[in-house]
């Protein structure tokens, strides 16, 4: 059997009506046990990614995540205690269990201030 080129196949499809194309598509899906809906799902997923980017731009609450304690671990523990209502043991556990969330759902200004304080004593912080 001779293999048709893509252009030859397009020529055959071009001569078909929409109803004939739909019937062909149904038969193709059944014969090969596939569905043509996957590309649409991918397009919708790609659209959701754009929506997530917009949501990130509109973010009003931030989490302050400690990612490193640096050389002055004790100073970082003191700063964590000053920012939170944690005791010494709990603050040490936060610093030891990196990465750890120090503050949750705070304003951008509060997150920025916390980041500056921790970085001033040698810790590293991420704002999410």
Describe the model.
- By secondary structure, the protein is α+β, with helices and mostly antiparallel strands.
- The chain has six helices and three strands.
- The chain has helices at 6-14, 18-32, 38-57, 73-83, 88-96, 108-120, and strands spanning 62-68, 100-106, 124-127.
- The chain has a three-stranded antiparallel sheet with strand order 2-1-3, with helices on one face.
- α4 (73-83) crosses α5 (88-96).
- The chain is rod-shaped.
- The N and C termini lie far apart (60 Å).
- The model has no long low-confidence stretch (mean pLDDT 79).
Show the helix and strand layout.
Elements: H1 6-14, H2 18-32, H3 38-57, E1 62-68, H4 73-83, H5 88-96, E2 100-106, H6 108-120, E3 124-127
Antiparallel strand pairs: 1-2, 1-3
Strand adjacency order, main sheet: 2-1-3
- Return the structural class: alpha+beta
Number of strands: 3
For the largest beta-sheet, the strand count, sense and barrel status come to: 3 strands, antiparallel
Mean pLDDT: 79
Helicity level: 55-70%
> Helical region count?
6
Radius of gyration from CA coordinates: 28 Å
Assembly level: single chain
Distance between the termini: 60 Å
Tell me, briefly, the overall form.
rod-shaped
Task: Give the low-confidence spans.
Answer: none
Write the element-wise H/E pattern from the N-terminal end onward: HHHEHHEHE
The proportion of residues in beta strands is: 5-15%
């Amino acid at each position: 059997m001779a293999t048709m080129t893509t252009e030859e196949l397009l020529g055959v499809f071009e001569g078909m009506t929409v109803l004939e194309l739909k019937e062909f598509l149904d038969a193709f899906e059944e014969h090969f046990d596939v569905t043509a809906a996957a590309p649409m799902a991918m397009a919708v997923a790609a659209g959701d990614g754009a929506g997530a980017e917009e949501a990130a731009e509109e973010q009003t609450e931030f989490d302050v995540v400690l990612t490193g304690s640096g050389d002055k671990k004790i100073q970082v523990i003191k700063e964590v205690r000053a920012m939170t209502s944690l005791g010494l043991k709990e603050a040490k556990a936060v610093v030891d269990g990196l990465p750890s969330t120090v503050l949750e759902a705070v304003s951008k200004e509060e997150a920025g201030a916390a980041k500056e304080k921790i970085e001033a004593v040698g810790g590293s912080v991420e704002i999410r």
